[in-house]
Design brief:
Blueprint lengths: L5 E5 L4 E4 L5 H8 L1 H6 E6 L2 E3 L9 E7 L5 H22 L4 E2 L4 E2 L2 E7 L6 H17 L4 E4 L2 H7 L4 H9 L7 E5 L2 E4 L13 E11 L8 E10 L2 H17 L1 H7 L3 E3 L8 E3 L1 H20 L3 E2 L5 E3 H7 L1 H4 L17 E3 L4 H8 L4 E2 L5 E10 L15 E11 L4 H18 L3 E7 L9 H17 L4 E4 L9 E7 L5 E10 L1 H5 L4 E2 L5 E2 L2 E10 H12 L12 E5 L5 H13 L4 E3 L6 H10 L4 E5 L1 H6 L1 E6 L7 E4 H13 L5
Parallel strand pairs: 1-5, 16-20, 19-26, 22-23, 29-30, 29-31
Antiparallel strand pairs: 1-2, 3-4, 3-5, 6-8, 7-8, 8-13, 9-10, 10-11, 12-13, 14-15, 17-18, 20-21, 21-28, 22-24, 24-25, 25-28, 26-27, 31-32, 32-33
Helix pairs in contact: 3-4, 8-16, 13-14
The structure holds zinc ion (2 copies).
Length: 645
């Protein structure tokens, strides 16, 4: 009995009938010989497959090419480069254990179990060996095997065996070989190692097997790979730019913050200069909130577990909460708060509210604690102790649109003050949700209407909302084009229900208020981390912890410099007097390294004339002489206007 032919729809819509088992490569040869040269893989419906893989079902078939700009093509390249990396490591260190080696957004990595971390010299040797593997142009050969055979093939690779045993009974088990290297892998891959051309090994770091700190620490090597040389070069340039802006490095250099292992990972210590930035951000926002009709509240950091049972956090969120604290003589355990909503609900619920009281806007700059996995912590960007500029708005359904509009206006005002470009993601109802379609219609319409009334562009994430309500995420772009998570505006139908919140309407009946959670900065940790990288540490005057340093040329001029310092201080500017007995050029250099916006040098001529020689950070003209009063006035104005440049 001859098998039935397969029907494949090719790009452009033409249809071919082929024998089952034909490979995409053979098909390409039949259709157009030139294709074979350029193709790297194929896509059968949604599944990306090797060119050499036998096709066993009908469907739409598309070829992937080096230069098609398709994400899938890049993934195939990067996954294949990860195998080339493992091939090189195994040939240099035959005893290295192998973990996972996936493609990731900007490249790939591979985890190895080795006795010592890789040194930079090791990485160079590995990169050189990879070039040899590529020159060898070995084919990536796929084979499907029985579980028993796979167990033998990977008998010496415990991590692969662990993975193998997770593959469900009946699922295909495939292995890929290139040269000497064999991997348990679903693929797909390039036809051969020679198709990898422009790659770079970037760095290595310890990584727990499967991100679990109770499992062995492996060494993860990161790299990236592109089809075009120019794209690799551009990517490396951006990485270098990002490296120079790394908030962890600048945080140390500028003495802004620290994380101390003995105290605990993910817990930020704000040093005076970093704390000054946080203070300025708080004051800026809080002044604005008062103008916009918010009330400030403060809620306890710990509470009985009952509060979080009522809110549902204990049931749905407990893995992120710190463990419960037993209290002597108390009938119930306590918890430290992971968020502030329950406390704000409790304040709302402390007395009966009328429709005339609404909207009620509670704002709290609050410390919350979340037990994030230690492997995911990253400087200020992912922490366990976080400071939110949180607020909860309780309003009537007919007030939602105006409230959202007001929040978008606030976002625009605040982000504009930092010169940040931003975009909105609007996430709508997911399949699994609570609340009637009518309620969702009303809520989504109100959000959309508010966005459109402000004439903002937005992307719709259909089905991306939380089960308890639609939301708007604000993402801002930094100076080198990277996207950062900023504000969130989240509607919530669940919490008012769980807490039984009501207000008395004009009809004298009780109604359920709508609740909106929102944070403008998000957390101070992540926002300041983002600002450090955006400004590369060179904060605009109004945000700079130290705005100006006064430098007397010599000891004899200390008094004259002191009175300049005094005048700046009196004008409300953050000035420092650098009268250390170092040379002037040393002190100027230090001021530049500390990225102080202005250095005011006082020499003999300046002291006599009541002037200062001003050096503005980054200015082309090195030095401008100004009368002290004019200098102070200019800075005060720049400070007041929050001038960016
Ligand atoms: Zn693989
Ligand atoms: Zn909340």
């Amino acid at each position: 009995m001859s098998a039935e032919k397969l029907k494949l729809v090719l790009q452009g819509g033409s249809q071919v009938e082929v024998e089952p088992g034909i490979s995409a490569r053979e098909l390409a040869e039949q259709v157009n010989g030139d294709l074979v040269e350029k193709a790297i893989a194929a896509k059968l419906d949604d599944e990306v497959i090797d060119l050499a893989r036998p096709i066993e079902r009908s469907g739409e078939l598309k070829f992937l090419f080096e230069d098609d700009g398709d994400e899938d093509s890049l993934y195939v390249l990067r996954h294949s480069t990860a195998h080339v990396l493992a091939t090189a490591v195994r040939s240099l260190r035959p005893n290295a254990g192998i973990g996972f080696g996936p493609p990731i957004a900007a490249g790939f990595y591979y985890d190895f179990d080795v006795e010592h971390p890789f040194t930079p010299e090791d990485l160079e040797r590995i990169e050189a060996r990879m070039a040899e593997v590529i020159a060898g142009d070995d084919q990536f050969e796929r084979r499907e095997v029985e579980r028993s055979e796979a167990r033998q093939l990977f008998a010496d690779d415990p991590y692969k065996i662990e993975r193998l045993e997770e593959i469900a009974e009946g699922d295909v088990i495939s292995v890929y070989r290139d040269g000497e290297f064999l991997d348990l892998c679903r693929g797909p891959h390039l036809p051969s190692t020679g198709r990898v051309k422009n790659f770079k090994i970037l760095h290595s770091a310890g990584a727990y097997w499967r991100g679990d700190e109770r499992r062995p620490m492996l060494q993860r090597i990161y790299g990236t790979s592109f089809f075009e040389r120019s794209k690799l070069d551009e990517h490396l340039r951006l990485l270098e730019e990002a490296r120079k802006r790394d908030h962890r490095v600048l945080g140390k250099q500028l003495d802004l913050f620290s994380v101390q292992e003995d105290v605990g990972p993910g817990l930020i210590h704000w040093h005076p200069k970093g704390a000054m930035i946080q203070f300025l951000l708080r004051r800026f926002l809080e002044d604005e909130l008062l103008r916009r009709g918010y009330d400030f509240v403060y809620t306890p950091h710990i509470s009985r577990e009952a509060l979080f049972r009522r809110s549902g956090h204990l049931q749905a969120y407990s893995e992120v909460m710190f463990p419960s604290m037993e209290m002597e003589g108390e009938k119930e355990d306590y918890r430290v708060k992971p968020m502030n909503c329950p406390g704000h609900m409790a304040i709302y619920d402390a007395r009966q509210r009328s429709y005339r009281d609404l909207p009620i806007r509670y704002a709290e700059i609050a410390s919350d604690y979340r037990n994030e996995k230690s492997g995911t912590l990253h400087g200020m960007l992912r922490v366990r102790g976080l400071t939110m500029d949180d607020a909860h708005i309780f309003c009537r359904p007919d007030q939602v649109e105006d409230e959202i509009y007001g929040m978008l206006d606030l976002v625009d005002y605040i982000y504009g003050s930092f010169g940040l470009q931003y975009g909105l993601d609007f996430s709508t109802r997911p399949a699994k949700r609570i609340g009637s379609d009518e309620v969702w219609d009303q809520a989504e319409d109100a959000l959309r209407a508010a966005i459109e009334r402000r004439e903002l562009n937005y992307a719709v994430d259909r089905g991306g909302g939380a089960f308890y309500g639609p939301k708007i995420d604000v993402k801002f772009l930094d100076a080198i084009g990277r996207e950062w998570q900023g504000s969130t505006i989240q509607l919530d139908f669940v919490l008012p229900e769980r807490f039984g919140l009501t207000y008395v309407g004009a009809d004298n009946r009780k109604h359920r208020p709508v609740m909106i959670h929102r944070a403008i900065y998000g957390t101070f940790e992540r926002f300041v981390g983002g600002l450090i990288e955006h400004f590369a540490g060179s904060f605009p005057l109004w945000l700079a912890p130290v705005q100006v340093r006064v430098l007397p040329v010599s000891d004899e001029l200390a008094d004259a410099a002191g009175s300049v310092h005094e005048a700046l201080h009196e004008a409300g500017l953050r000035a420092e007097l650098d009268d250390r007995s170092e040379t002037l050029s040393y002190r100027i250099r230090d001021g530049e390294l500390q990225k102080v916006p202005y250095l005011a040098v006082v020499g003999e001529r300046e002291a006599e004339g009541g002037t200062v020689a001003v050096r503005k950070r980054g200015a082309e003209k090195k030095q401008v002489v100004l009368p002290v009063s004019e200098f102070v006035g200019r800075l005060a104005e720049e400070n007041r206007n929050r001038t960016l440049g």
